[in-house]
Design goal:
The structure holds 3 protein chains of 3 kinds. By secondary structure, chain A is mainly α. Chain A is built from 13 helices and 2 strands; from the N terminus they run αααββαααααααααα. Chain B has 14 helices and 24 strands. Chain B has a 7-stranded mixed β-sheet with strand order 9-10-11-1-12-22-13, sandwiched between helices. Chain B has a 6-stranded mixed β-sheet with strand order 15-21-14-20-18-19. In chain B, strands 4, 5, 6, 7 and 8 form a 5-stranded antiparallel β-sheet that branches. In chain B, helix 10 links the parallel strand 18 and strand 19. The chains are: A mainly alpha, B alpha+beta, C mainly alpha.
């Protein structure tokens, strides 16, 4: 097992390296540059553009830029005043030493930008996923047990509907209904806030305020996940129910309910847990539509803004860290699967 | 959609019940703004308080709350002193022109009662510190006009002289306006550099407000600066800037009374706000942004109109026919709520208003003009071909690409489609496209469409802010600005007479300048390198209770924030 | 949901479609599919939508030319879905938009199947180095954060002027979505082949001198056709949803070319004033996705590997 994990981790490093080359190239290929303003009516001296390029490190050929991005430039002399003479050491440490560069937009370290948004995204996504699982599990079990019943068909339709409504559209509708139209009968205010994490003027932690701000984003964000997980659980329950040992158990006279809850559910949950592990990266990358509509200061919005404004360092940092999350989640999923299902062994492979 | 609603209703009612309970016992949803607090909603965080490094728009907005420049511009575009005791002019002896070398120097006197929010007085040392930080060859940055400055010299603690290497008519806003402010020498760390320093994100205030809290991506809180020099101002105790990315959510918050101000309100939102009892839409008294058509005079993909002239657009008669075929009044009425003002020259507003007669909307005349230019439709497909035209080969089809930028939104998309239809009616076929602004305007090496000449005809908006059009005119029409990445003369229009007038316009003699500009207007009318169409809607929306808001000509609604009040 | 990309890796490995031979399979599947009423309903609905969209040119209205006197007309007998900002008949626009959206969906399926199936087949059949190289490539693609890369790629390709990728081309969007969704197909096909490779009838064919290509095409692929068709059906739906999401963010198909996605996202400005502009494109997307899901569900049950397994008697 240990050898397997070590081998997988080594592969992960190789894969991340390959991905970093691909993503670095892609990001820099994007037309439109961080240097372009929006049709501003003024004369920018071309020399000043050169200065900006030097400050951003965009004055060097792309392969050199990649090397500096990876290992930094504090070990080599660079020309920072543009006189053609490399006179002083650079200041970049490189990704390998945890320096993802600074945001072109705010000039703050890219990691700091991510650090400010990440807790908010984890907060929202964890609650969204938890809500989704808590609702999806009973739905999945019931519709598997009563396959093709009215309940099953209703739930199936509902969960397909959950996948058929674009998230941005659902969010907008919910805002219209619960913010613009419905009023709180006690205070006359809007029933739910339009967005944000807290109300203005609320200082410190206020549970009630936190919860009212979570209802709409969580409802919007979890609908698709509920559909997804309940469908998944339904089909894995059906698989398990049809398997021989359960038939044997039932034939032996064990009560059906006991069979379902004790044996079938346990085995059906194994793939679900693995699936959850695979979906962990979403807790990092966030839900872009929910964050935009509900003014939630998370990673999805940070990425979207960086993409629009060609903020290469932030884009790259999010992509690379996101990819690392995916790879590690895959590893975690495989390990969990092996741990939970004794039939799977990785040592031999 | 009713099907969705019906199916989802149980969930809705469950949530409604749940949230009612929570709202009753917990913090509750809306109307947290009250008392002495106003809420401004903007779609994204400002990058910093230093507009000179990112020029994002929202940086100006928050900068005006906390930092002052030597002078600023009011809603009508007049310059007024901020940190300066008075504006230096030739008349009051503040400006001295060296006739021989055609250079000038401006001597500024600062107010002596301005303190930073930590109590330290603001002095000439701060101005010199700011100048040196900007021009630092390694860590510096750029603000408009800084290239014209040779040096800044201290005279005494509250007096300094700026020496220019030319006569620069925009000198009053060099350390002010929307782009620049004076930075605190004792607080900012010069070694971090102008563009990167921490004081650009955690500023020390010289203005009416102090930044109290900045929760990235969520909100910023500003409270009254107790050290602000104007007694009794500002009237409003707290300003909260909330980051709300979605436009329709911002609109709904304004209608619901949870937001007091939305800046740069778009036409679609204005249309919904106009009937609302508690919202005021405040159009700017000065219309800066002019929607216009840019023609590439060089063939698509090239930048030299002499070597590779555009097969269709290099003939001025074609450009004129295109202008004649566009019905500006209908566009304004239908797509811009009637708020767009038709414009046909760069010099359409005071103080540089020139008398150019308005062209007629005349599709029949346009057709005749195209016929006479050798563009006729002989194969009967409705699209003209070259039969004896001067700029293309025989049989060349009158078909081009017509681009715009996608960021503006629906009114511009509709305008683009409408214009394409009108031109099709006179036999010109346009293939429409929309690209991100950042791609349209990027430098040529970054794939910038305009800078690399990779277009036929574009429509987008620009215009000069405030009162000094010099830099603007230079960068759109001067010959040197046609060099890729040097300026914005995207059409590569080169005219020696215009260049000569432009060179002359670097003067402080206003009468003479006006005369020069009107001569330019004649040339532009004759040659039509661009076709100005109408001013776009430049407005901000605010709640009825918020008073004193005046949209400014350079888009900064917060320029007079110290004078705002809340009606009781 | 983009999560299909991560999810199927478990799902499909867990339940390979094992069938022997193809004779009678189609008939058996059809027999079971026919008994699935909602799946039939979904098929009928999708066929109707496709037919309507194909017949779009029969509409008496022009999809592009404006009628300024008829802007923002609510639904009426004359304009059954009302008119848009340029006074164009919304129903006609939606039909033409459906051509674009369904084309995007179909292209995505074609692109992802034609990359994924060969990759999975070659990897599964040959094993060894070929497999580890191909699966490494698949893993690389699977490690890209899906929606984030989708945004990045559409920003890049949308505005690159190559002969095939013209600005705002439908093909660009389809290519971008397709290039990020073929991995599921590769995994499905490989998983099937892994279980089949050593089965008797394959070994027998090989012993009889059947060429590799022949074995793959005639014996192995037909056995993974079930899950491929199911996944392809769902993919059609995902593609339409993803295009609409990209449109909302401004990276989708650009107006004036109509797609259901951009018709819907443009309508959000007018939600309260002109609700029909949003309702009808939304309804079209909704109906398509629902139909596609029902069909997928029916097909999955019809192809149910365990029912077949029992028959083969593994």
């Amino acid at each position: 097992m240990t050898t397997y994990v070590v081998r997988r981790l080594i592969q992960t490093i190789g894969l991340l390296f390959l991905l970093s080359v691909i993503l670095f190239t892609l990001v820099n290929l994007a037309p439109g540059g961080p240097l372009a303003g929006q049709g501003q009516s003024r004369h920018v001296d071309p020399e000043k553009v050169e200065l900006l390029k030097r400050q951003f490190g965009l004055d060097k050929p792309l392969p050199t830029q990649y090397i500096i991005w990876l290992v930094g430039n504090d070990w080599m002399k660079v020309d920072i005043d543009g006189d053609g003479v490399a006179e002083s050491f650079g200041t970049r440490k490189g990704v390998l030493r945890g320096d993802f560069g600074f945001s072109f937009r705010t000039r703050k370290p890219a990691l700091e930008e991510i650090g400010e948004r990440l807790p908010n995204t984890i907060y929202l996504m964890t609650i969204t996923m938890l809500a989704a699982i808590l609702i999806a599990i009973p739905i999945g079990i019931l519709s598997a047990m009563r396959q093709y019943s009215a309940f099953d068909i209703t739930v199936t339709t509902f969960s397909f509907a959950g996948q058929a409504i674009p998230e941005f559209w659902l969010g907008l509708l919910l805002i219209l209904i619960f913010y613009a139209w419905l009023k709180n009968p006690f205070t006359g205010d809007s029933l739910l806030p339009a967005g944000g994490m807290t109300s203005i003027g609320v200082t410190g932690f206020d549970l009630g305020d936190r919860i009212v701000h979570l209802i709409l984003p969580v409802a919007t964000g979890s609908l698709g996940w509920i559909a997804w997980y309940s469908r998944f659980l339904r089909s894995s329950m059906l698989d398990v129910i049809h398997q021989d040992y359960l038939r044997t158990a039932r034939a032996k006279g064990l009560p059906n309910r006991l069979v379902i809850y004790k044996h079938a559910l346990r085995n059906a949950l194994i793939p679900l847990i693995t699936l959850l592990a695979l979906d962990l990266p979403y807790i990092f990358s966030g839900a872009i539509f929910v964050e935009i509509l509900f003014s939630w200061p998370g990673m999805g919005r940070l990425y979207y803004q960086a993409a629009l404004q060609r903020d290469y360092p932030v884009l790259l940092a999010i992509l690379i860290i996101g990819a690392a999350f995916i790879i590690l989640s895959n590893l975690l999923a495989d390990l969990l699967y092996a741990f939970l299902d004794p039939r799977v062994r990785y040592d031999k492979s | 959609m009713s099907r969705i609603l019906k199916r989802a209703m149980p969930v809705f009612s469950l949530m409604a019940a749940l949230s009612m309970i929570l709202a009753a016992c917990g913090g509750g949803g809306g109307a947290a703004s009250g008392g002495d607090t106003i809420v401004i909603v903007i779609p994204e965080d400002p990058p910093s308080f230093n507009p000179a490094i990112a020029d994002a728009g929202y940086d100006y907005l928050v900068m005006e709350l906390v930092m002052l420049g030597l002078a600023d511009m009011d809603a009508q575009g007049n310059v007024f002193p901020e940190l300066a005791a008075e504006l230096p002019t030739v008349e009051n002896g503040g400006v001295v022109i060296d006739e021989e070398n055609w250079t000038m120097s401006a001597t500024w006197k600062l107010r002596q009662d301005v303190k930073w929010s930590d109590g330290t007085p603001l002095t000439a040392d701060d101005v010199i510190f700011t100048y040196e930080a900007i021009v630092d060859p390694e860590t510096g940055g750029w603000v408009p006009g800084i290239d014209y400055v040779d040096s800044v010299e201290k005279v005494d603690d509250y007096t300094f002289t700026v020496n220019f290497n030319t006569v620069y008519p925009g000198y009053l806003l060099l350390f002010g306006g929307e782009q620049a402010v004076v930075w605190p020498a004792h607080y900012c760390d010069a070694s971090q550099g102008f563009a990167n320093w921490d004081c650009g994100r955690q500023p020390l205030s010289s203005g009416p407000y102090v930044l109290q809290e900045w929760v990235n991506g969520d909100h910023m809180t500003f409270v009254r600066n107790e050290n602000y020099f104007a007694p009794g101002k500002p009237a409003i105790e707290t300003i909260v800037v909330r980051i709300v990315p979605d436009e329709s959510v911002r609109k709904t918050m304004l209608i619901n009374g949870d937001a007091d101000l939305d800046m740069w309100t778009t036409e679609a939102v204005i249309a919904d706000l106009l009937g609302q009892p508690n919202v005021v839409v405040e159009p700017s008294p000065t219309n800066r942004w002019v929607m216009r058509i840019f023609f590439n005079l060089a063939a698509k993909g090239t930048t030299d109109p002499q070597a590779t002239p555009h097969p269709i657009l290099s003939d001025v008669r074609v450009r004129r026919a295109i202008r004649m075929a566009i019905d500006v009044d209908t566009i304004s009425k239908e797509f811009f709520l009637g708020m767009a003002q038709p414009v046909w020259t760069e010099f359409f507003r005071e103080p540089y208003k020139c008398d150019i007669p308005r062209p007629k909307f005349d599709p029949e005349g346009a057709k005749a003009l195209l016929e006479s230019a050798g563009w006729t439709d002989t194969d009967g497909d409705g699209i003209r071909e070259c039969h004896g035209c001067e700029t293309a080969e025989e049989g060349y089809v009158m078909e081009m690409e017509f681009l715009t930028y996608s960021d503006y939104g629906e009114p511009l998309n509709l305008t683009q489609q409408f214009i394409a239809e009108e031109l099709l009616a006179i036999g010109i076929k346009l293939n429409l496209g929309a690209v991100e602004g950042t791609v349209l305007w990027a430098y040529s090496a970054d794939g910038g469409i305009e800078q690399s000449g990779n277009f036929d005809m574009d429509i987008w908006d620009d215009g000069y802010s405030g009162i000094d059009p010099n830099d603007y005119l230079w960068s759109y029409y001067y010959s040197e600005a046609a060099i890729p990445d040097y300026g914005y003369n995207y059409g590569r229009w080169i005219n020696a007479d215009f260049d000569a007038l432009m060179d002359e316009a670097y003067t402080l003699d206003e009468e003479y300048r006006k005369e020069l500009f009107c001569q330019m207007a004649e040339i532009l009318e004759e040659e039509l390198p661009e076709v100005p169409l109408f001013t776009t809607v430049n407005a901000d929306a605010h709640s009825v209770r918020l008073q004193g808001v005046q949209s400014s000509t350079n888009d900064i609604v917060t320029w007079n924030v110290a004078d705002w009040t809340i009606a009781q | 949901m983009t999560s299909n990309i991560a999810g199927f890796s478990v799902d499909e490995i867990k339940r390979p479609a094992v069938t022997a031979g193809t004779s009678g399979l189609g008939a058996a599947v059809w027999k079971r599919f026919r008994k699935h009423p909602v799946a039939i309903g979904g098929s009928v609905m999708l066929a109707l939508l496709a037919l309507l969209v194909l017949l779009a040119p029969l509409s008496p209205f022009d999809p592009e030319l404006s009628t300024m006197e008829e802007r923002y007309q609510p639904p009426s007998l004359h304009h059954i879905m009302g008119t848009d900002a340029l006074g164009r008949d919304l129903f006609t626009r939606i039909l033409y938009g459906g051509r674009i959206s369904l084309t995007v969906g179909a292209l995505v399926v074609v692109i992802s199947v034609s990359i994924g199936v060969p990759v999975g087949a070659l990897a599964g059949y040959y094993g060894g180095r070929v497999e580890s190289l191909l699966m490494r490539i698949t893993d690389t693609f699977l490690s890209l954060p899906p929606f984030l890369v989708l945004i990045l790629l559409s920003a890049i390709l949308r505005e690159v002027e190559l002969p095939i990728f013209e600005r705002n081309n439908v093909l660009t969007i389809a290519f971008v979505i397709g290039i990020l969704s073929w991995m599921t197909f590769a995994r499905i096909v490989r998983a099937t082949i892994l279980t089949l490779r050593e089965l008797d009838f394959v070994t027998a064919t090989r012993a009889l001198g059947g060429s590799d290509l022949r074995i793959i095409v005639t014996h192995i692929l037909p056995n993974s056709i079930g899950p491929i068709i199911v996944e392809a059906t769902l993919e059609l739906g995902y593609a339409i949803i993803e295009e609409s999401g990209l449109s909302f963010l401004g990276f989708g198909i650009q107006p004036p070319t109509p797609s259901w996605g951009n018709l819907l996202s443009n309508a959000q400005d007018h939600l309260t004033k002109y609700p029909w502009l949003a309702i009808f494109p939304g309804l079209m997307i909704f109906l398509t996705i629902i139909s596609v899901n029902y069909i997928g569900d029916g097909l999955r049950d019809a192809f149910d590997p365990y029912k077949v397994l029992e028959k083969v008697g593994e």
